[in-house]
């Protein structure tokens, strides 16, 4: 008996989520979840990605601030980034960034599909509004994260270049000082 009821509930979910605007136009997601005796799963299911992306964005912003200002933490961060860019580090970073970019494009596509439905029907049902808000927030956070990752990479590169230029300038000035000392003529 229980398996038939859960199978029926799964069929209702499949019908509702495959064609939400055509099946039950006035049905709210909380009513549907009460019907199948579940707590609303949209915020929990989609919220997991958002709960990962918010700390990631704040961590990247903290890294950028630590790299911009000359603090003792900056030296440690540069050493850590140097080590991360050796071996398989760049491959892993590119794979993660590529995956994040694909999910970012998928979220943007979902937002565009919901907007297209909105333009066709003239109104947006509550389920589509919630999905659009979550997809837009998710896409925004992923875009910020990718952009901040690029900023961190470029900051690291320019800090290393600046350090190399400073060292070479010091060597040149030292050579110039030793060469320009007046020699005693007899």
UniProtKB/TrEMBL annotation:
The UniProt record lists the keyword Hydrolase: no
Predominant subcellular localization, coarse grouping: endoplasmic reticulum
Membrane-traversing stretches: 49-70, 91-112
GO cellular component terms listed in the entry, alphabetical order: endoplasmic reticulum membrane
Family per record: Belongs to the BCAP29/BCAP31 family.
Protein's name according to its UniProt entry: Endoplasmic reticulum transmembrane protein
Localisation per UniProt entry: Endoplasmic reticulum membrane
Taxonomic lineage from the root: Eukaryota, Viridiplantae, Streptophyta, Embryophyta, Tracheophyta
InterPro entries tied to this protein: BAP29/BAP31
Keyword Protein transport: yes
Lipid bilayer topology: Multi-pass membrane protein
Main function: May play a role in anterograde transport of membrane proteins from the endoplasmic reticulum to the Golgi.
Gene Ontology biological-process entries: endoplasmic reticulum to Golgi vesicle-mediated transport; intracellular protein transport; protein localization to endoplasmic reticulum exit site
Keywords: Endoplasmic reticulum, ER-Golgi transport, Membrane, Protein transport, Transmembrane, Transmembrane helix, Transport
